[in-house]
Design a protein that fits this description.
By secondary structure, the protein is an alpha/beta fold. It is built from nine helices and five strands.
């Protein structure tokens, strides 16, 4: 089995590209979906987060409450990550489908130095990235800039990636994904 780490900064087309892999029959594990499961009622992060941040937890972990907490005290991010990242890693390790190729959609793949067999960076010009992100409901310039400040610069990710796909146009991206699947599966 080849473990393909799919990454890219916010607004680069990572989710869309992951969906293209899934649509081609490749199993995809999604780090953001794992966090949602962990934060949901009965999720593994609920009780540890309640112990650390009782105001942010009812029967689930409230993302808006965490966002407000971080706005008031950004240093709390380290505590949150200390609780959540190990649980996300456990969730990722439990994902063991029987397939020649498996995609792991991990926004902070390079920032967290997560080992994969091969890596794919999805990217787009900064102006397109900004347009995509600011079109999201509730997104502001300040929030976008804060998120970018916590992510490795795109040029550094390009230097680390085994493969790079520019997500300028859907059909072209889909063709590149299909070509990469064929290439990787022929080397599995």
């Amino acid at each position: 089995m080849i473990r393909l780490g799919l990454t890219g900064s916010i607004g680069m087309g990572k989710s869309t590209t992951a969906a293209m892999f899934a649509g081609a029959g490749v199993p995809v594990w999604d780090a953001d979906a794992a966090v949602h499961r962990l934060y949901a009622p009965g999720g593994e992060a609920v009780e540890p987060m309640r112990a650390a941040f009782p105001a942010a937890v009812t029967d689930h972990v409230s993302r808006p409450a965490l966002k407000a907490l971080l706005a008031a005290d950004p240093t709390q991010l380290v505590r949150i990550e200390g609780i959540v990242h190990p649980l996300v890693a456990e969730d990722r390790e439990r994902f063991q489908p029987q397939a020649d190729l498996v995609v792991f959609d991990i926004p902070l793949l390079f920032e967290r130095d997560i080992a994969m067999d091969v890596t794919l960076l999805v990217t787009a010009p900064h102006a397109l990235q900004r347009t995509r992100v600011l079109a999201r409901p509730g997104m502001t310039e300040d929030t976008f800039d804060l998120i970018l400040s916590r992510q490795m610069p795109d040029r550094d990710k390009r230097a680390r990636a085994d493969h790079v796909i520019e997500t300028l146009e859907m059909d072209a991206t889909r063709l590149q994904v299909q070509a990469l699947i064929r290439y990787l599966c022929s080397h599995a």
